[in-house]
Amino acid sequence: MDMLDNLESLQFEPGIKEEDRCWLYLQGRYHGLMIKACAHAAFFCKLLHHLRKSLHEKQTSRVAKIHRIGLLPSTPYEDGFNVGIIGGGHLGKQLARVLLQLVPIPPERLQISTRRPEALDEFQKLGIKCFYHNSDLASWANVIFLCCLPSQLPNICVEIQASLAKTCIVYSFVAAVPLLRLKNLLNHTNILRPQYQFGEGFDNIWGTNKDITDALQDPVLLLANCPYSPAGGIILNSKWVEGILYAALNTCTTEAMPCSQALKLLNELFSAHFEDCGKDGVSCPNFQIQDFVSRVYARSLSQKRPFPWFDLIAVQLKDTPFSNQRLTSTAFQNHLTHLYCGLFGISLTKEQQPVVPTSSPSQ
């Protein structure tokens, strides 16, 4: 309960001088940026969790067929997806709450490394390991979220560099440090970094005090958080979308999954039709090998071989086959919006449905 609620004289705004009130919009912008950052991190974790679960189910089915015992009832899926957060400040705490409640990640699969673990009592009571040993966290985690200050990053990178597995995904919220600098500091290419920019008109739909987990269960705010949405005046660089898809393919490659099966998993993720998109699914994305690698390489890649390992730094900084063929496709954007809301448990109403593309089916 907010004890200051309805006590206007004790709230933040009345203490602001009249000539300084023009800057109050920054408070809403800050809160909106925090909501978007946590939402996109949660979506990424949900996507990987869903993909890993599908991988497990297909491997279980394949083993059953090899032993000629038929498709037995599947064993319970034990999620081995470990997530680490470096930094226990405001962003680190908010992110931990969102991952716990909305992905959801079990407490034993979440660890936080911070210089002040004693300040994270609420998380320790939930069973989350909170400590100060960045290299230990790096050797344990499948995904690491960097929620530290730019001034702290060089020392943190020195501490974790030797402990990072090639398959570990580093997800950086340190806006002041560009991708190439991160690559050099970590000697690592499996890095994602969302980039946000502010539109000319800022519409404060975010509020300033709304709990982030509550905000992400509000259909209006959830739609505003969709990767291609300009609502609220905070825009996510679309190369992040490309990065998470290539990261998903790297996850399949780690499990030695043939490229044909990896594509099938992605197509299944994007296969949910929204009303009016057509029962025949003509406008639905149907990913092909050449959407992710060059046509020359695609011709030489056997369907039974995994995709090559992708450098996520290069994916986010350069044009790729996906950039040229899919990233700006209306069909892809619409289905991504549907997938995004669906993974958060929100079903779009007819009025909220994405716009049906008028472009050719080849998109």
What does this structure look like?
It is a single chain. The protein has 363 residues and is α/β, with parallel strands linked by helices. The chain contains 14 helices and eight strands. The strands form two sheets. A six-stranded parallel β-sheet has the order 3-2-1-4-5-6, sandwiched between helices. Strand 5, helix 6 and strand 6 form a beta-alpha-beta unit.
Query: What's the helix count?
Result: 14
As a percent range, the share of helical residues equals 40-55%
Mean pLDDT: 82
Helix/sheet category: alpha/beta
How would the global form be characterised? globular
Largest sheet: 6 strands, parallel
Q: What separation lies between the terminal Cα atoms?
A: 50 Å
Order of helices and strands: HEHEHEHEHEHEEHHEHHHHHH
Q: Determine Rg (CA atoms, Å).
A: 22 Å
Which residue ranges are poorly predicted, with pLDDT under 50 across at least 5 consecutive positions?
Answer: 63-77, 356-363
Order of strands across the widest beta sheet? 3-2-1-4-5-6
